Structure formats: C-alpha cells, structure tokens
Amino acid sequence: MNRKTTNKTALQEKAGVSKQEATSQQAISNLKKKRQEQPSIDDLLEEIIAGNTAALSRGITLIESQNSAHKDKANKLIQNCLEHRKPSIRIGITGVPGVGKSTFIEALGTYLTGLGKKVAVLAVDPTSRLSKGSILGDKTRMETLVKNPNAFIRPSAAGEALGGVARHTRETITLCETAGYDVILIETVGVGQSETLVHSMVDFFLLLKLSGAGDELQGIKRGIIEMADAIIINKADGNNRTAAKLAKAAFNRALHFYPVKASGWMPKVEVCSAIENKGIDAAWKLITAYITHTKEGGYFSKKRQNQNNFWLLQSIEDQLKDQFFQDETIAKELKTQMALITANKRSPFAAAEYLLNLYKSRV
Fold first, then answer.
1. Is 308-362 a domain of CATH 1.10.287?
2. pLDDT digits over 260-312, tens only?
3. pLDDT digit string, tens, across residues 169-227
C-alpha cells in the first residue's frame, strides 16, 4: 500500500469517527431535549397508573418543586390521583442515627417483595442548616433493594420541615399508591424524639432501638415511645444477642406504664438482626397483626380520616406561611423589623404582631 492510499484510508477512518461522535452527540442532545419536555398531567397520570417508575419519579419531582408555575400542575396531578389509589399499608420507621434503619428497611423490603408485594421506600434525609444540602444516599445504602424491580426508592431532603419527614411526603404517598405499591415504608431523618408528622401519615409506627447503648432508658420516657405501635431491638447479633433480649424485657416492662391506646392495641417488642436477616418475618407478622386488629375494630379507617383532617389544617398553615413570606412588602419590612430588634428598639413579639397586622391589612 502506497502513502497516498494510506492517507486516504486514514482520512476515511477519521471521517467515520467524526460521524460517530456527531451521531452520539445528537443522541445525547435529543435525550436532554426529551427530558426537558413536560408531559401533560393526563399523560403523566396514565404512566404512573401503568407503574412507570420514571413517570412516578417525575411526578414526585413536580410536587416537590418550589417553582410557583408548577404548583397548579402538582395540585391537579394529586387531585386526579385520588380515584386511582390502590389499598396500601403505610409504615413509618424511625430511630436514632446508627440504629440501622436503612439496613432494616432493605431487609424488610426484600422480604416483602419475596412475598410478591410492591414496596415503595420514601427516605427522608436531614438537611444542613448551613449549606442547605442533603446527602440523599439511601439508594447507595440499599444497593440490593434498589435493583429489585418490585421496589421503588425515593430519597428526599427534609428541608426546613420538622417532624422527621419532608414537606411533600404526604403527597408522595398518594402518587405511590396510584402506582400500585402495596407497602409504603417511610424512613424518617432519625431525630428520635420529634417524629410527630410521620405518625400523622402512617398506619403503623415502628421504633427501632439499640441495646447496650443506654437506649433502654428511653423506655421509661414519654414522647416517641407513646406513639410507637411496636419497638424492635435491632442489631441482635454477635455478642449483642444477650443484651438485646435483656432490652426486650426492659421495654416490655416499661410499656405497661403507658395507657391503653385508642386502637386497643398493646405495643409489642421484638428483636432482630437486619444484617443477618433474622427476625424480619416476625416483624412483618407483628405489623399484619396490628393492621388486622385495627381494621376489625374500625380504628384503621377512622385514623386515616383523622389524618386527612389533620393534613387539611396543615396544608392551610403551610400555604398561609408561604404567602406571607413571599409578599414583597412583608419581605422588605421584615428586614427593617430585624434591624430594630438587633438595635434593641423593638421586641420580637411586637415586630411579629406588626408584620401580621400589616399583612392582614394588605389581604
């Protein structure tokens, strides 16, 4: 082969590579363009009902959006979902950081999908008050469950919402039920003593505890223990098995000091090792026993109705708060009042009353 032929071949190969690169870049451009396209609410709803997880994720992103233009679309989507929701069991799971919530949820989710159930995990991560960022690493921690076709994992940032959940977790539950998920597991941020909001949106509230870490003492305190429908001592493995059994006995004794719940259910205590996949079946049997008990007594439906009423009032409060702080006059005057407070010329209470009266006069 002479030099002229070699150069020609090289040019042809280079042209082929350039053509492939152009095709690849065009494909990427088309994909980005498609992602930017906003489907109609009806189309999005149809895909969610069909079980399309990409559509479900897109719907959740829509309702979590802070863009005011998305609010009407989000409200319409939620409204249209109501008549398509499937029956589900909503389970809130909380516990202090390090108790093994993610490991437990992955073990329970895997067990449930093995029973033929569809499981959605709504994991709420704490948000930094300084950077306003969240890690959202639950998909990484649940590396087995995330690959399961019958499981859906959605991490969300808690933001400024209190009570252990994100602001739009309640609406996200509605979307997951519309997508046909049988069991919805809500993992809280793990504050440990203030998980009030998650209790108001689930059927069963599960508290994970540790043994041998002073955690047994929490059994004699009120607060989150009062809200728990069951306590599970996690990490009952290795040298910790005996300590877990002792902790179980201690919690059982402590629970007798609490008044009987409105449901008539006496909270139970179990031990498990999520990492060894032991005791997960017992945990599920405990949950199903509670659901059967509350449905037979009529408490299950009554509780859900009370929760709906609670979230009506909560939504009104949230929207009034948003409207207040988004008012341009209020935003400007707020800075003035803060400066007066800093200069000790006005008390925070007087400033608040002034701002509220100003807002009422504008409304």
1. yes
2. 888 999 999 999 999 999 999 999 999 999 999 999 999 999 999 999 999 89
3. 889 999 999 999 999 999 887 654 446 678 888 999 999 998 865 544 444 455 678 88
CA distance 363 to 153: 42
Tokens of 238: 């290795």
Q: How far apart are CA 169 and CA 155, in angstroms?
A: 10
Secondary structure, 3-state, 161-196? CCCCCCCCHHHHHHHHHHCCCCEEEEECCCCCCCCH
Q: Higher-confidence residue: 346 or 362?
A: 346
Using CA atoms, how far residue 142 sits from 90, 103, 139, 202, in Å, is 19, 7, 5, 22
CATH number for the domain running over 40-84: 1.20.5.170
pLDDT tens, 144-157? 899 999 999 998 76
Q: Do residues 120 and 184 make contact, with C-beta atoms less than 8 angstroms apart?
A: yes
State how far the Cα of 313 lies from the Cα of 318, in Å rounded to an integer. Answer: 9
Which residue stretches of the chain are H helix?
3-36, 41-49, 53-64, 68-81, 101-114, 138-141, 169-178, 196-199, 224-227, 241-255, 280-296, 299-326, 328-342, 348-362
Amino acid at 272: C
User: 231 or 163: whose pLDDT is higher?
Assistant: 231
Nearest-Å Rg of the Cα atoms of the chain is 26
- Residue 328: which residues within 8 A CB-CB, separation 6 or more? none
Whole-model pTM: value is 0.80
CA separation for the pair 249, 62 (Å, rounded): 46
CATH classification code of 86-298: 3.40.50.300
Domain boundaries, the chain: 1-37, 40-84, 86-298, 308-362
**Average pLDDT estimate for 328-351:** 95
